Amino acid sequence: MTIPSAAPAGDSGASTWRAQAGSILLAGLGGFIALALVGMLATRTAQPWILGSFGATCVLLFGFPASPFSQPRNIVGGHVLTTLTGLLCLHLFGPGYVPMAAAAACALMLMMITRTVHPPAGSNPVIIFAAQPGWSFLVLPTMSGAVALVAIGWVYWTTIKRGSWPLRWN
């Protein structure tokens, strides 16, 4: 989805802009609903369902749902794998910028090897090293939040576009 540039001579480009504006509004609405619902879960359960990288996940999930990086396997697998990698490196090597950089690099390579690349998840090792959470961080917020976003995305896109997302589950 791109914002149109100058319209060809004799064409106002209004219809193109309206179509893109509709897609932009749908993306914004989806991101709002998803983050509001996950935020509500956090408030109601007094549990940390929110992860900083989930905002960027919503950019892909709702702004670019056809992207390979926006599919359920990539969203959940990428977040879980990178968080696990960050936690392992933190607990094995301790805090510091070198272990953090190693964790991020290993997470990137593991996502590529497992075909679970999800760019927002690449920030999870950095988040791990900044927050220094315990092992439970893998389950909540990471895995539970990622699964919640996928479920919300599925309901949203099934309702809005009649089953247009995901393109694949595996």
> How many domains, in number, for the residues?
1
- Straight-line distance between termini: 24 Å
- Secondary-structure class: mainly alpha
Q: What is the H-and-E element order?
A: HHHHHH
In percent, how much strand structure appears in the residues?
under 5%
Count of DSSP helices? 6
Question: Which value, in Å, is the CA radius of gyration?
Answer: 18 Å
Percent helix among the residues? 55-70%
Describe the biggest sheet?
none
Give the overall shape, derived from the CA principal axes.
Answer: globular
Please give the oligomerization state of what you see: single chain
Mean pLDDT: 92
Low-confidence stretches: 1-8
Number of strands: 0
What does this structure look like?
It contains six helices and no strands. The chain has 170 residues and is mainly α. It has one domain (15-161). Helix 3 runs antiparallel to helix 4 and helix 3 packs parallel to helix 5 (124-131). The chain is globular, with a radius of gyration of 18 Å. The two termini are 24 Å apart. Mean pLDDT is 92; it is low at 1-8.
SSE topology sketch:
Elements: H1 14-45, H2 54-63, H3 72-93, H4 97-114, H5 124-131, H6 139-161
Transmembrane segments: 20-42, 49-69, 100-117, 137-157
Pfam families: TM_HPP (PF04982)
Domain HPP transmembrane region: 20-163
Summarize the structure.
This protein has 170 residues and is mainly alpha-helical.
